[in-house]
Amino acid sequence: PACAGPAADVATWAVDDRIEIRVAGDVNQHVAFAIEFVGRAAAAAGAFAFQRDDISDRRAGAPSVGDLIFDHLPIRYTGVDEPRLVVVLSQSGADRLGSVGHLGDRCRLVVANGVHVPPTRATLEHVDVPAYENATGPHHAALSILASALVACGWVDAAALARACRSIPDDRLRGAALAAIRHGVTSACATNRRPANQD
Description:
Elements: E1 2-4, E2 19-26, H1 31-44, E3 48-54, E4 63-71, E5 85-88, H2 91-97, E6 108-112, E7 123-127, H3 129-136, H4 141-153, H5 158-164, H6 171-186, E8 192-193
Parallel strand pairs: 2-5, 5-6, 6-7
Antiparallel strand pairs: 1-3, 2-4, 3-4, 7-8
Helix pairs in contact: 1-4, 1-5, 3-4, 4-6
């Protein structure tokens, strides 16, 4: 787990309330990196941020679940009880996540094509994960999809995410992350929306 406090620049991260996010996928989809990166971006843009990942098995294909919370106030409670965004990138991630029946109608649920999730009141969107992997590489698809969802929700802009790339010391990794963010931002309006009860 990691917590961070605000920096000086608060204009690019539109947070006036607590936002809880959960991302579920496979270990090889690098969910933990995506969560950590966005948490750094939130802190760099002036929000308080908390992130953690739950990886019990690091073998390829094993499930990985990450939580992210950001708020304009210091974060005292780190549970994810009412997520506003849930991203599911694989069936093993969905199985590890379990029921989504508790998700409210304010929640945006982004699910990889072909992944089954139980009925939910959340707004359901489908995403083509292989297309993201082809565009960004398999290591950065989760970051790109998460960036796309954050921008679509109106919580962050491209500049805030790109600014966080400066904290990555490795030039190659920094460039790949920036390319993933750019792809996610340009794809923010390209998700396949449909009513949640038609799964």
